[in-house]
Specification:
The protein is about 70% helix and about 5% strand. The protein has nine helices and two strands; from the N terminus they run H-H-H-H-H-H-E-H-H-E-H. The longest helix is centred in the middle third of the chain and has 26 residues, at about 100-125.
């Protein structure tokens, strides 16, 4: 049996990189349950660093079981409740600090805003209209009220859906969860599509390069905050 060790003093980024490498060694038959476990842990109040440490330990356990010719179920017994197992891990470790929680929120917020604003710039009439006609994009772009609301909604909906999926990792196969997800996705898609068509009044006129600079700054801020999670 191969011995697997990792320096727990490594940064979260380094731990995640090592875990991603080891994930490729997990057999397909074990991937679904393993992914649910990690998703559930990510949706908890554990810090990202602690999640990656636990992830490494669990990955090592799964890989050792595979070497013995066993699957992930053998680690907990056939009747083991994976959610209960995760809750025990969560309860045994310190929760993320308020500072870490704030960094996580604003990192997600800035990254989502940068992506949403970039989408808004690309699909705005002042930019996409010129590109479609084979012309250079205008020096300034107009973002309508509907497009502005969509940018905000994309951030909120994306954050909420990610948290919902993580916290419902062990319920994703239930009929109620599937129906709820389809309903929410349908309503959200309809809102995001029709709002720009209904609310066409100009919200603001933005210089193209200023807009791109804001996108870059938000992306950089989001990535910087990730280091403190």
């Amino acid at each position: 049996m191969k011995e697997r060790k990792i320096d727990m003093e490594k940064s979260t980024h380094e731990l995640r990189k090592e875990n991603n490498r080891l994930d490729g060694l997990i057999k397909e038959e074990n991937q679904a349950v393993f992914t649910d476990i990690i998703c559930y842990l990510r949706g908890s109040k554990l810090s990202e660093h602690d999640v990656e440490v636990v992830r490494f330990d669990l990955t090592s356990m799964v890989l050792e079981a595979q070497e013995r010719g066993e699957n992930i179920g053998s680690l907990f017994g056939k009747c083991r409740d994976y959610k209960e197992f995760c809750d025990e891990i969560i309860d045994s470790l310190p929760k993320k600090t308020k500072f870490q929680a704030a960094c996580e929120f604003f990192s997600t917020f800035f990254l989502a805003c940068s992506a949403s604003l970039l989408i808004g710039i690309i699909f705005s009439a002042g930019f996409s209209g010129k590109i479609i006609k084979g012309k250079l994009p205008a020096a300034s772009i107009k973002i309508s009220v509907g497009e502005g609301i969509v940018i905000i909604l994309i951030v909120v909906i994306a954050y909420a859906l990610v948290k919902l999926v993580m916290r419902s990792a062990f319920e994703s196969e239930t009929i109620f969860f599937k129906i709820s997800t389809i309903a929410v996705s349908t309503v959200a898609s309809a809102v995001l599509i029709f709002l720009p068509l209904l609310l066409k009044d100009t919200l603001l006129t933005l210089d193209l390069f200023v807009g791109i600079a804001i996108v870059v700054l938000m992306f950089g801020a989001g990535k910087t905050l990730e280091r403190f999670i």
